[in-house]
Structures are given as structure tokens and as C-alpha cells.
Design goal:
By secondary structure, the protein is of the alpha/beta class. It is 40% helix and 21% strand. It has a single domain, classed as Response regulator (Rossmann fold). It contains 5 helices and 5 strands. Strand 4, helix 4 (87-95) and strand 5 form a beta-alpha-beta unit. The longest helix has 11 residues, at 11-21. The chain starts with a strand and ends with a helix. The model has no long low-confidence stretch (mean pLDDT 96). The modification 4-aspartylphosphate is found at residue 52.
Length: 119
């Protein structure tokens, strides 16, 4: 069982992800504002973070760079979840240090399979 941090400015997307994870053994911590990501990681110590790329104030790439500086995030894997699905977007996300990139829209099965691969 893993603790998963979900950071997405869309309540509908968060609801979709948490519903997909309901039947699994994983627990979720959700944020609609990327600025709270560091505090959430310090407090919750998730094994995996699902980060939206396009968010107001601070995008997913900036959030990942901030999290990489935290000792509490050591060993935590990050997956970008985004509607930005061009090959260049995916390559850039992986170059930033994400272990995977899930393109919206996706199915609950795709999400669970991706999570099982990384935790």
C-alpha cells in the first residue's frame, strides 16, 4: 500500500483519480494548489506524487523542482498527469525527473496500472 499525493487544480480531475483509487489499497492526499505541495510532502511522506502540469501560480515542472530540494521527498516518485501530450511535452517532463507521464484523458485502469508499476 502506498500513499499518493495528487496535485491538480481541477477538482473534477482529483475526483476522477481518487475514485479510480478507491478499490485499491492506496491512500490519497489531494491538493488543488501546487504551493502547498512541499508542506504536504513534509507532513505525509508520500511514495508517489501525481502532478498536473498546467496549474495557476506554479506549474508542475516548477513544483517538481521545488520538491526535489526537500529531504522528505527523497525516494518519492513523480508522475506528470497532463492534457499536454505532445512528444516534446512528455520528453521534457521526463527530463525534469518524472518517472512517467500520463496523458489526459485516461482510464482508471491506465492510472492503476501506472501506479502499480512505480510503487
Amino acid at each position: 500500500m502506498a500513499k499518493i499525493l495528487i496535485v491538480d487544480d481541477s477538482p473534477a480531475d482529483i475526483r476522477f483519480m481518487t475514485e479510480a483509487l478507491k478499490g485499491s489499497a492506496h491512500s490519497c492526499v489531494t491538493l488543488t494548489d501546487a504551493k502547498g505541495a512541499e508542506a504536504a510532502v513534509e507532513k505525509e511522506r508520500p511514495q508517489l506524487a501525481l502532478l498536473d502540469v498546467v496549474m495557476p501560480e506554479r506549474n508542475g515542472y516548477e513544483t517538481l523542482r521545488a520538491l526535489k530540494r526537500l529531504p522528505a521527498a527523497e525516494g518519492m516518485k513523480v508522475v506528470f498527469v497532463s492534457s499536454k501530450g505532445a512528444e516534446s511535452d512528455v520528453k521534457w517532463g521526463l527530463r525534469q525527473g518524472a518517472v512517467d507521464y500520463l496523458i489526459k484523458p485516461y482510464t482508471p485502469e491506465q492510472l492503476l496500472s501506472l501506479i502499480d508499476r512505480h510503487v
